[in-house]
C-alpha cells in the first residue's frame, strides 16, 4: 500500500500549507485560546456575585438603599432598568428576591438597590432590619428586559411609576444626566404622600437643573394640602400634562394594580402597545382581594401540595393560599430556580398534575400552558395540588 499523502494531489493544498506556516510564524495561534471564551463570559456575566454592603442610605421611613460593592473584582455591567436577584438565608430558609438597580450604569463601583418595607415582607424586613454595613450578600448578574432601546423607543419618554417602582427609572434618569444623553424624560410618580416619595428631593433638584427632565409627583391622598397633582395617573391627567402625546414612548413600573389601572388609561389615549414598556412588580396587597380570586378560598386556607419527581425528592408539604408556590417550597427546604419573582422569566415553572392554582402571571408560554405548566412565583394554591418540579 502506498504511503503517499493523497491531499497533495488536491489543487491549492500546498499553497494552503504555506499560508498556515506563515500564520503560525507571524500570526496568533488561536488554538491556544481554546476553552478560554467561557472565562470571558463568566467575567462579564457570572452566575453569582459576592457583594459587600458598603453603605446604607435611609430614603424614607420605610425605604433604604443598600450600596453594594464587589468583594473580589469589578462588577458586571448592566443596562439602566435591569435588576439583580438577591439571595438570602433567613431562619433556615434559602430564598431570593429581585431588586432593580437604582444607581447609574455610568459608574461601575457599586450597585444601589432600594428596598421598601411591605407588610409581612420576609426578605424586605430582613434587609431593612438585620443587614448592616460590612455584611456579605450574594446575587445573580444583572438581568431583565426593562431598559431603553435606542432603535425603537425614540428620545421622548414618559415614565409612570408607583411606590418602589421608581427604582429602575432612577437608574435611567441618572444615566441620562450623568452621560448628557439626548433624551427627554417626563416622570409621573404616584405616591400616598410627599413623605413616602422616594428620591423626591433629588428628583426636584435634577428637574430644576436639567431641561430634559420633568418631574410630576402625583399624591393619591386627595385630602392632602400638597399643591401639586393629586389623584391617580389616569388618561385625563396624562393628556393635560403631556404635550405631543403621540410621539412618546411610555414606561410603566409599579405594583400589579398600577399596571392593571394604567394600561387601560393609555388605551383611552390610543397609545399603541408597541410604544408601551412595562416592568411588573409582585402583587402588593392581599392576594385574596385580587380580581377573580375564588370566593370559597379565604386568607386562612391551607392546602397539601405533593411535589413529585423532577429535580427534587418526592415529598408532601403544606402551602398557604396567600403565598406563592415558590415560597411554600422554599419554606420547606425545596430549592427552586428563580430570578424575576414576578412571572416573567419562567425559571421557576412547575407542572400541575392535579388541583388548581390562582395565577397572576400572564407570561406563561402557550406551549407551557397547554401542557399544564405554571410559574411557581405567581401561582397560589386554591386546592390540594400535585406538581412536578
UniProtKB/TrEMBL annotation:
2Fe-2S ferredoxin-type domain segment(s): 301-389
Keywords linked to the UniProt accession: 2Fe-2S, FAD, Flavoprotein, Iron, Iron-sulfur, Metal-binding, Oxidoreductase
Keyword presence, Iron-sulfur: yes
SUPFAM superfamilies assigned to the protein according to its UniProt record, in alphabetical order: 2Fe-2S ferredoxin-like, Ferredoxin reductase-like, C-terminal NADP-linked domain, Riboflavin synthase domain-like
Alphabetical list of Pfam families matching this protein: FAD_binding_6 (PF00970), Fer2 (PF00111), NAD_binding_1 (PF00175)
GO function terms (MF aspect): 2 iron, 2 sulfur cluster binding; metal ion binding; oxidoreductase activity
Cofactor names: FAD
Domain FAD-binding FR-type: 46-149
CDD domains membership: fer2 (cd00207), FNR_iron_sulfur_binding_3 (cd06217)
Cross-referenced InterPro entries: 2Fe-2S_ferredoxin-like_sf, 2Fe-2S_ferredoxin-type, 2Fe2S_fd_BS, Beta-grasp_dom_sf, Cbr1-like_FAD-bd_dom, FAD-bd_FR_type, Flavoprot_Pyr_Nucl_cyt_Rdtase, FNR_nucleotide-bd
Family annotation (PANTHER family): NADH OXIDOREDUCTASE HCR
The name this protein goes by in its record: Phenol hydroxylase reductase
Amino acid at each position: 500500500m502506498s504511503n503517499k499523502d493523497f491531499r497533495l494531489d488536491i489543487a491549492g493544498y500546498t499553497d494552503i500549507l504555506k499560508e498556515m506556516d506563515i500564520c503560525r510564524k507571524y500570526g496568533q495561534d488561536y488554538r491556544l485560546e481554546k476553552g478560554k471564551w467561557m472565562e470571558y463570559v463568566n467575567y462579564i456575566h457570572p452566575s453569582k456575585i459576592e457583594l459587600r454592603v458598603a453603605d446604607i442610605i435611609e430614603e424614607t421611613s420605610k425605604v433604604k438603599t443598600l450600596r453594594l460593592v464587589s468583594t473580589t473584582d469589578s462588577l458586571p455591567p448592566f443596562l439602566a432598568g435591569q435588576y439583580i436577584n438577591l439571595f438570602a438565608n433567613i431562619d433556615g430558609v434559602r430564598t431570593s428576591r429581585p431588586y432593580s438597580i437604582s444607581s447609574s450604569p455610568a459608574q461601575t463601583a457599586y450597585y444601589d438597590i432600594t428596598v421598601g418595607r411591605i407588610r409581612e415582607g420576609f426578605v424586605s424586613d430582613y434587609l431593612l432590619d438585620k443587614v448592616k454595613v460590612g455584611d456579605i450578600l450574594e446575587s445573580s448578574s444583572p438581568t431583565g428586559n426593562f431598559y431603553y432601546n435606542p432603535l425603537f423607543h425614540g428620545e421622548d419618554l414618559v415614565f409612570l411609576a408607583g411606590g418602589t417602582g421608581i427604582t429602575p427609572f432612577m437608574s435611567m434618569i441618572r444615566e441620562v444626566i450623568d452621560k448628557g444623553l439626548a433624551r427627554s424624560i417626563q416622570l409621573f410618580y404616584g405616591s400616598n404622600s410627599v413623605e413616602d416619595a422616594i428620591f423626591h428631593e433629588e428628583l426636584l433638584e435634577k428637574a430644576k437643573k436639567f431641561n430634559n427632565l420633568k418631574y410630576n409627583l402625583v399624591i393619591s391622598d386627595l385630602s392632602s394640602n400638597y399643591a401639586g397633582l393629586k389623584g391617580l395617573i389616569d388618561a385625563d391627567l396624562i393628556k393635560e400634562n403631556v404635550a405631543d402625546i403621540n410621539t412618546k414612548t411610555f414606561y410603566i413600573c409599579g405594583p400589579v394594580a398600577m399596571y392593571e389601572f394604567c394600561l387601560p388609561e393609555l388605551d383611552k389615549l390610543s397609545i399603541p402597545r408597541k410604544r408601551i414598556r412595562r416592568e411588573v412588580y409582585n402583587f402588593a396587597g392581599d392576594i385574596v382581594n385580587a380580581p377573580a380570586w375564588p370566593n370559597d378560598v379565604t386568607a386562612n386556607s391551607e392546602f397539601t401540595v405533593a411535589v413529585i419527581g423532577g429535580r427534587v425528592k418526592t415529598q408532601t408539604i403544606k402551602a398557604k393560599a396567600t403565598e406563592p408556590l415558590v415560597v411554600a417550597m422554599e419554606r420547606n427546604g425545596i430549592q427552586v430556580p428563580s430570578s424575576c419573582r414576578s412571572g416573567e422569566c419562567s425559571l421557576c415553572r412547575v407542572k400541575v398534575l392535579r388541583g388548581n392554582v390562582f395565577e397572576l402571571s400572564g407570561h406563561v408560554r402557550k406551549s407551557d400552558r397547554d401542557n399544564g405548566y405554571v410559574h411557581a412565583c405567581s401561582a397560589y394554591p386554591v386546592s390540594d395540588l400535585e406538581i412536578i418540579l
